[in-house]
Every structure is written in C-alpha cells, then in structure tokens.
Automatic annotation (TrEMBL), chain B:
Primary localisation category: membrane
Classification of source organism: Bacteria, Bacillati, Actinomycetota, Actinomycetes, Geodermatophilales
Any single biological process term in GO: transmembrane transport
Membrane protein topology class: Multi-pass membrane protein
Protein name in the entry: ABC transporter permease subunit
Classification via Gene3D superfamilies: MetI-like
PROSITE patterns in the record: ABC_TM1
Natural source organism: Modestobacter muralis
Transmembrane regions listed in the UniProt entry: 21-45, 82-104, 212-232, 244-262, 283-303, 347-369, 399-424, 444-473, 485-504, 510-528
Family: Belongs to the binding-protein-dependent transport system permease family.
Subcellular location: Cell membrane
Pfam families: BPD_transp_1
Amino acid sequence: MDAGERVAVVGASGAGKSILLAVANGSVPATAGTVEVLGADPGALSGRALRQLRARVGTVHQHLELVGQLRVVHNVNAGRLAAWPAWRAAWSLLRPQWLPEVLAALTELELADRVWERTDRLSGGQRQRVAVARVLVQRPELVLADEPASALDPVLADRTMTLLAGTGSTLVASLHDPALALRHCTRVVGLAAGRVVLDSPAAGLSLADLSAFYGAPR
Amino acid sequence: MTAVLTPVAAPAVLRRDGVRWAWGLGTLVVLGWSLAGAGLFSGAVVNGAGTRQFGRFAAAALSPATDGAFLGVLASSVLITVAYAALGAALAVGLGAVGAVAVARTTWGRRRLGWALARGALAVPRGLHEAVWGLLLVNLLGLDPWVGVLAIGVPYGAVTAKVFADLLDEVPRGPYDALRATGAGPVPAALYGLLPAASGGLLSYSFYRLECAVRSAVVLGLIGAGGLGYQLSLSFSSLRWPEVWSCVYALSVLCVLAVVAGRAVRRRVADPRPAGDRLRRDPLLTTAVLTTLAAVAWSWWYLAVSPATLVSDRTGDQLRYVLAAAWPPDVDGPLLSAVASAAVDTVQMSVIAIAVATVGAVLLAGVAAHPVRPTVARRLTGAVVRAALLVLRAVPPPVWALVLLFVLLPGILPGALALGVYTLGVLGRLAAEATEELDPRPRAALTALGAGPVAGWLYGALPAATGPVLAYALYRWEVAIRDTVLVGLLGAGGLGALLASRLAVFDWGAVTTVLVALIVLTTAVDLVSARARAALR
C-alpha cells in the first residue's frame, strides 16, 4: 500500500485482522513470506534501529493495553516515549510534559475534562479515546488501528476516524462497521481464514458488498 | 446532536490525592528523622580499618569448609534445628487447634465482649519474638530442650489459633446447622459439617508454619538453643570464615527444602487430584503428613524432651519467684526514659530497614522475575540474583549485623542495615512475584511504539507494581519491628538490648516494663501499617 492511503481491513472474527496488524507493528514475527513496513523489515532490525522504526508506527490495540494505574495524561504522553530521553519520561511522571498537545488531542476527543483522572476509573469508550489520543501525540507515519471505534457512539466514532485519517499518515484500520469503512477509507481489504479475498478501492463498493464479510466465516 | 459535542473545559491544574500525599510526606519525614537518629548526618559511621577483615570474610564464600569432621558437626546441627522446628510447629498446631475453638466467633456467638477479650489475650504471646520467649524460658527452665520447643510453639500457637479460628469462621454454616437440626451433637456436626470444608486451609497453614519454624529454630540457636544457628555463631566468633560459609550454605539449602516441600503441599491442597474409582488418599499429602508425624516422634526422642521438667518442683518454684518479682512493673523515671529512648531507636531501625529493603526490592524485582522472553544472559543474571536473595533471607539478621560490624562503627545503623539486608531477601522475592503477575501487554504496547527499556519500565511496569509492593513493604514493617528486638537482643541497641541487659541482672520488674512497651509498640506499628495500607487502596 502507498503512503497516505487509508485502508480498511474487514472480515469476520478470527479472519486474521488483528494478527495482520500485530505483524505490521513488529510485535509478532512473520512465520512465512516477507514483511516490509515503511521500507524496512522489523524482523531484521534490532536495538536502536528497531525502536526508531517502531516510533514511526502508532497502534491502537484491540484491548487498548493502557496502564490503568496511571493518570490519563501519562497514558497519552506514553506516545512520546520513543522520542523522549529516559530522564524526560521520568520527569514527566512528576510534572506532566507536553500538556498543551495532550489537552489538544483530548479536546478533539471530548475527554479534556478527564485528563487528571486515573485511567482505570474511565469507561470503556473513554479509555478507547485515551488510546487514540496516545497515537495522536505520537504523530506516527503509519497508524494501525484495531477496532478503534468499537465502543464509541456514532458521532464520536466518525470524529475518531477523521482524526486518525487526518494525521496525514497512512492508516490501516480493522473495522466492524462497514459504513465507517466506506466513509473514511480509500481502499478495502477483505480477509477470510487468514487470506486476502478482496482488495478494491472503496469508491466501487457498496454496503451490501461488505456485509457479506461479517458473520460466520463460510 | 450539538449538545453532545459541547466541549468541556479542562481542569487547569493537576489535583493530587491529599491523603496519599500526606502519607508519602509523612514517610519521608520519618525516614529523614530515622537516618538522622542513626547518625548518618553527624560524624563517621564507616570503620575503614575493617575492610580487610571483610574482604577475607567475603573471599571465603568460594571456599567453604568441607572437611569430614566439620561436615559431621554440621549434619548434627542441621538435625537439631530440624528437630526443634518439627516439635515447635507440632506444638503450635496443637495449641492453635485448641485456641481456635476458644477464639472463634462460632464459639462465642453473640457474646461480643468475651470474644474480644479472648482475641485480645492472644496479642500478648503474639507480640513477643520467639527469641524473647527463649530468653524468658531459659530463666524458668534452665538449659532444657523445652526452651526451644516452647519458644517456637507458644507465639506460633497464638498466631495459628487466630488463623485457624478465621478459617473456621469463614466456612458456611448451612451444613452444620442442617446436621444440628437432624439431632447431631455439636462435635459430630462440626466434624462432618465444618471441618471438611476448612481442612484444606488448616493443612496448608500448618505446613506454612513448619516452614517458618525452621527459620525460628535457627534464630533460637543463635541465643544458645543449639543447632545450625549456634554453630554459625560459634564459627563466627572464632573467625573461621570457611566454616561460617558452610553454615550459610547449609541454611540456604534447608530453607529451600522447607519452602519447596511446603509449597508442594499447599499447591496440592489448592488443586486436588480427581478421585479414582475406589477410595484413595492423595499420595503426596499422605506422605507429607506421615513424614511429619514420624519426624515429630523422632524429634522428641532425638532432643530427649521430658515432660517431667515442665512439672518439676524446681520449675514451679522458679515460676512463682519470677511472677512475684515481675509484678508490679518498675515505673521509676530513669527506667521509663531509657525505655522511651530505646523505643525510638527500635522504630528508627525498623524504618531504615524497610526503606533499604523496599528500594532494593523495587530495583531488583525486574531482574529477579522470571523473564517473559528469556535470553541466556538474562536467564543467568536472573538465577544469580534469585540465589543472592535466597542467601540474604536464609541468614538471620543478627549474623548480618555481625558481618556489617566489620565495616561500620557500632550503633543502630549496622543493626538497621542488617535487618534491611535480610528483609530485602524476603521483599525482593515478593516484588519479583508481583512483577511476574503483572499484565505484560501494556508494556508490550509501549515497546511496540518504540519506548526504550527504562521508559517502558517507568510507564508500563512501575505504576502497576507500586501498590502491591508497598503493601508488602508495610506488612514486612510489622515483621521488622519484631525482628528489631532480635537484633537488639544480640547487641544492636533498642528495646531488645535493654531487655537483654535487664534480664542479665534478673531485674524482673524492669523486664515487665520493657515487655509491656514492646507489646504496645508492635500493636501501634500494626495499626499504623493497616491504616497506611487502607490509604493505598
């Protein structure tokens, strides 16, 4: 896929959407074939080079993987950890750094009033927006989003997708909502049983075409 | 729609949790006060001349004594220690079973006052360290094996009674009431309706007590009851470092065996085997119980314990004399001010010890935990750190105090650091286990976005581990304040040293005063610790 593309990955549960994103961010090594992310193979890199590549890839995980005991501001700032030296990361836990940027991201997501709250006190939808805000302050070149809007109401879901797509970076999102995929993405890739069974520009597809990908795998 | 989108103003300033900050600030103040009390900010604390002796001691770690004669002595020391532990634990379980009935809520029903008094009575034996019991009993019974057995059995019995009573009280009452309704007497009804549900917990706890008893038996050896602790202090005072290290290694092996066996029993109790097609007892549990019973019988024979000592006229006379001399307690001014300043020393020692242990444990926890993705180097460092922590907690604190006196000038600092080093051994393992139980995924998510190891630890592991580790640290503080007395008995200052000096001159009135102060102090520490843990939640 090309830079700036916005790709929706669709498919039934267990079709391989999450694993595709995990391979792309280098958390899971590929068992066969070659992987190229932003011009490099994460499996071939290690140490500093791997961290530099990872800093350019932002992920909204399916289960969010936030640190519940930290305040919202720190969980959002965790997106800066690759760019910050360790002393600044430590200092930020005492005197939160980058507050204007964090508040800007949270304001877009209507969560600015919870910035000092402990993350485990938030509801599921609020936590999801914290994870999105983390990617926004990370400013990556490639955004991988696994169901980034699953717990949000339709207005906020649209807003979130616009924000993720509007970072100027390439977006790969697995989505359960076909309407969201068609509205925000330029290209749709369908998966079934781990294989690509559809790859088409979003413009030529209808809701009915996509509905066939959900439900039980055939 | 627009109402949903109305932006909410962000709170301008970060609001800290006042209660927690008060506890945190209070802790820092108390720590600074303790360090000042230990003389850290006023004059020399390091004894430069002792470093060479310390070097010789440390070098001997690699060449422990292995000659046949010493190994023979060592083997019989181990047997004595095991025998004391087995008999002491057996007595504790016996006393605990009887005591549990006496303090269970079930027994007292609605008579709240009686129940509270019975519970309160347990605080006295529980508040005194085994070594204190040992010293008191030596004065009553003379040099008799009963001293070691009772010194373990009495305080452990009180703790066991409380835990057993809680276990019994937690069992649902339905089955018991149903049996009583069909006309069964209280004892058979309890046997069929209460005991089966509680038996797993009772068995687990009994074996846990046996594990602890091994450690206590070593400590009692240090104050003269014989066994490994005695041999260790003997080798130490005659400066035979290779022998000291042989004792340390024997201690470590003994502790590992006790923990492994105890853990095997507790795991099996928690996760029993499915029953077959015929009546069958669990082989592991049956072996454990039978072996322990055989060990208790053997210990009785090996230590030549005789019930006659307990009921002899001499013991009775001595008891009457001591009780008459011990009441009323001394309350003259000089003694009270000595008790107060000793109590301050004791608190300061325990605070420094816990601070050292907590900082060390937090720093080592990550390395000591079993790694998720092990490399050879990582696995090796982990094994070395875990072995070091094991040695730290296998050697009793007074021995560490003697080692530290090579390089530190006498005062409360060596005692505090000795206790800190020992507690680090315990707390390091607990912190490593807490780290292993953390959810690894939030940290993996940080690694996936390029965070380095330090930043990943700071944001992904530290926040989640802080709560449990601090709770453990506070709990260990309660243990440490009791152990401070032990270190003090052997010379490091505080209430323990005061108690030892009063006992040496048979000043029984003053002994009573010090014991009361000890019980008050440990109870106060328990209360503060419980409050702090509540604030953490």
